[in-house]
Inverse folding.
């Protein structure tokens, strides 16, 4: 009788655990209105009046190798803050491969507000996608000079990275969300 009770408890716990894991595995096929594999023209149409083609002299290294940031939205609002959005297209197929959404710092000494914006974005992403699959936090004793937080959500078609890296001593400020096409989407788009 004891063995049957233990077996039932084990079975129920296994079902509960599997149910939570399966629920989190819903795929993410892009960002906002976009989907991996769409063309530049489709991105511009989806964000009519906001998305613009970047001039070739403005193209700096924002994307992974083999991609170019050809379209941008300069003042995209998330919560109460503004972000700069770059849509990176595959150089060969000219289709959407990644999106980088960078926080627009208001001034050279804006450090404190941006940390609250990171926490707000983290909460929004957790609400939408559940807990991240990877988390990194710099040590609390280093907070006065250097703060680094990183969160990663992995889905079959998309990898989402939320990065916050503020080095006050070197005056380096990185704060962005990176949506990268995952393996499943690459296979689907070929």
């Amino acid at each position: 009788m004891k063995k049957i009770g233990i077996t039932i408890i084990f079975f129920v716990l296994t079902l509960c655990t599997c149910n939570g894991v399966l629920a989190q595995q819903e795929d993410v096929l892009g960002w906002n209105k976009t989907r991996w594999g769409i063309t530049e023209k489709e991105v511009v149409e989806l964000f009519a009046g906001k998305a613009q083609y970047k001039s070739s002299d403005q193209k700096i290294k924002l994307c992974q190798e083999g991609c170019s940031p050809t379209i941008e939205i300069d003042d995209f609002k998330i919560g109460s803050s503004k972000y700069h959005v770059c849509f990176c297209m595959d150089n060969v197929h000219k289709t959407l491969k990644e999106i980088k959404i960078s926080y627009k710092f208001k001034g050279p000494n804006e450090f404190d507000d941006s940390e609250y914006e990171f926490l707000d974005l983290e909460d929004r992403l957790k609400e939408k996608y559940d807990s991240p699959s990877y988390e990194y936090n710099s040590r609390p004793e280093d907070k006065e000079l250097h703060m680094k937080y990183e969160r990663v959500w992995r889905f079959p078609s998309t990898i989402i990275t939320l990065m916050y890296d503020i080095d006050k001593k070197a005056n380096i400020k990185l704060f962005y969300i990176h949506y990268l096409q995952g393996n499943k989407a690459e296979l689907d788009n070929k």
Summary: The chain has one domain: 2-188. The chain has four helices and eight strands.
